[in-house]
Amino acid sequence: MQLRYSFRLYPNGSQRAALARAFGCARVVFNDALRAREDARAAGLPFITASELSKHLTAAKKTSERGWLTEVSSVILQQSLRDLDTAYRNFFDSLKGKRPKMGPPRFKSKRDSRQAIRFTANAGWKITPGSKLRLPKIGDLTVKWSRTLPSTPSTVTVIKDSAGRYFASFVVKTGPQEVLPTTTPQIGMDLGLGHFAVLSDGTKIDSPRFLRRAEKQLKKVQRSLSRKAKGSANRNKARLRFARAHARVADARREFHHQLSTKLIRENQAIAVEDLAVKGLARTRLAKSVHDAGWSQFVTMLEYKARRYGRTFVRIGRFEPTSQVCSACGVKDGPKPLHIRQWTCQACGTVLDRDTNAAVNVAKAAGLAVTACGAQIRPVPVPAQRDETGTHPKPHPTTVRQAGIALL
Questions:
Q1: Are 195 and 378 in contact (CB under 8 A)?
Q2: Is the entire prediction scored with pTM above 0.85?
Q3: Which tens digits make up the pLDDT trace of 75-94?
């Protein structure tokens, strides 16, 4: 499988100018190609192919208006055209229902929060013996190597974020040598807001709430930014302070997700989670807390790390009644309001914790043999006793109808 390894770059003044020139050239090529295709569509002409766009780019370099495109590596310009093709392909696939709905390609701006250029192997970039990143027509950039690359990278993408930081993102290929030794535990996981995650073995992981904890500082820098005159140097400085404050929150959340997902993957052979409707939940009054939790990012990390290290990862449907079924006897007694965190099953008398019960049901729905509170969950089929045969007990008549989407 292919993975990305990102490292911080520290370019000097001339290198930052060269990178800005490269970002601008790649952006202009992308916009020119997009404009050509949009004009052809408006005129009723056939769709312009990638090879035709490449010929137009070669001809544009010889003109006085676009002659400065020769100041940067030609590889990043060709990769910019490939990015446009990928954007169109994704848009057409979304219209056909092959992927989630997305809009058509849009024009890029120098004020976008993210600027990026990509170098492939034929661009001639390399890592020097002095552990610097040598890029054509840019120079040797200082890299903060936090770990060793597992194999020779095929491409490198240089990224500048809204906080003015530079990163080098390497694409490397990993093999089966990273598979972890087989272990026994298998767990189900219930994600929530009160606790970030509750495991089927009863473990509850607190939610760090990085955004909530940083709100006071974020309000301060936002207020300072709003008071600066538009277009002034002081406003640009305030914008950078504001972007860096938000970047610290995002970095802390990402680090928490990485550490927790790695720990769970190392300690468990199989993990089951529920497929949450994050987009729907983000339109409710709990939107800020939902975004602060970052469930989608965390589940994505679990999925790719399970595939990388030879673990089993299972998603169950979001419509599974995990909070309505007793994990001890399997009786469904209906939805419950969110303020009910603990209840007693009317059928078997078991006292159930809402989150732990949901995590156990997630594991059951995924077909995992997990343990809850020290007891094995349905290890083998057991025949019913004579006095237990017949129909299942009916749900309790005082079942409360839950409005909206079941969050926890």
A1: no
A2: no
A3: 999 999 999 999 999 999 99
| Exposed / middle / buried, residue 319 (Cβ in 10 Å: 0-12, 13-18, 19+) | exposed
Q: 221: which 2 tokens?
A: 């820098």
End-to-end CA distance of the chain: 34
pLDDT for residue 240: 95
* Structure-token match 């990638």, residue found: 50
- pLDDT tens figures, 299-354: 999 999 999 999 999 998 888 888 888 888 888 888 888 888 888 888 788 888 88
Q: What is the dihedral of CA 63, 65, 70, 75, to 10 degrees?
A: -100
Query: CB under 8 Å to 64, separation ≥6 — which residues?
Result: none
pLDDT averaged over the chain?
87
Contacts 24+ apart (CB under 8 A), 18-24: 18/137, 18/138, 18/139, 19/117, 19/138, 19/158, 19/160, 19/166, 21/71, 21/72, 22/72, 22/73, 22/76, 22/117, 22/137, 22/138, 22/158, 23/110, 23/115, 23/116, 23/117, 23/160, 24/110
Whole-number Å distance between alpha carbons of 165 and 210: 21
Dist. CA 322–CA 407, nearest whole Å: 11
Confidence band for 370, pLDDT divided at 50, 70 and 90: low
SS3 track for 329-388? CCCECCCCCCCCCEEECCCCCCEEEHHHHHHHHHHHHCCCCCEECCEECCCCCCCCCHHH
How many residues would you count in the chain?
408
- Residues 336 and 342: their CA atoms lie apart, in Å, by 10
Which residues have a Cβ under 8 Å from the Cβ of 250 and sit 6 or more positions away?
none
Query: What are 316's strand-pairing partners?
Result: 274
Active-site positions?
A: 190, 274, 355
* CA–CA separation, 347 and 342 (whole Å): 15
Task: State how beta strands 126-127 and 351-353 pair.
Answer: unpaired
